[in-house]
Amino acid sequence: ATPTSIMVGTGRAAEMGVLFRRGDALQTLRDAEVIALDKTGTLTLGEPTLAYFKTSEGFARNEILSLVASLEARSEHPIAEAIVDAARRDGLPLAAADNFAATPGFGVAAMIGGRKVEVGADRFMARLGHSVAPFANDAERLAREGQSPLYAAVDGRLAAIITVADPIKPTTPEAIAALHGLGLKVAMITGDNRRTAEAIARRLGIDEVVAEVLPDGKVEAVKRLASKGQRVAFVGDGINDAPALAAADVGIAIGTGTDVAIESAGVVLMSGDLRGVVNAIALSRATIRNIG
Ligand code: ADP
Ligand code: MG
């Protein structure tokens, strides 16, 4: 492609809300064979709400939800916001948390009113030595519906199962179908529960799922997809997507996401609408083809 054609191509892209930050991105995007997308905030709205809350026998709902929300009030994870909002809506009091500790990709813990409260994924409970087997049926059923299961332990005993639901963006199904229409393979990379991720992938017709990835494991996930000799474009929005955006053949950041993600990407979408990815690829093909 000539410099002029690339200028025309990138100019047309800008009109469609797609910003090419790197000169070579138009060509690398044209050559992409796999589009790997982050789930939370990219395929989904990234605004989870509390969907289900059930306590173990001997634990009172409001008391446990109040403890859990008091702990989550200290966390900045979107899951935390969903739980705090639910407790507020129910008019439950929040107490101060001491010795707060967050383990990225696992969960959070603190002392609330002299009680030890721990909230997180099943792998967090496993690490703490709390069996989640009593909630196995609930977890499986709700994850199959696309909800993300979490657990709470109070003073070392499993106290509740909690699920949050993060709706798929209304434009995502059309975007995925269009990517398939362009002959691309579509993959999802997420830190979320495997069953939840698979349920959402099935709903969207996504071909491959890499789930339960730790916050610093997305690069490895991108490399694993690339190891099959396919050129990989990665689409993400979060801080922990930045290394994968840089490692992919081409990184596509969502402009409504974090600054670090944007700075690591070759392409930036001005909105969270994934049809922008489709436009960018279609345009990259048209531009390069026209020049030969
Ligand atoms: P993602 O946001 O894609 O789920 P993260 O790496 O941020 O990925 O978190 C992985 C998992 O760790 C979450 O899905 C959740 O189960 C658990 N987790 C992380 N932070 C919290 C938190 N503040 N409260 C409860 N669970 C958490
Ligand atoms: Mg995200």
UniProtKB/TrEMBL annotation:
Source species, domain of life: Bacteria
Residues of the whole record sequence present: 473 to 764 of 826
Name under which the protein is recorded: P-type Cu(2+) transporter
Subcellular location as annotated: Cell membrane; Endomembrane system
Assigned protein family: Belongs to the cation transport ATPase (P-type) (TC 3.A.3) family. Type IB subfamily.
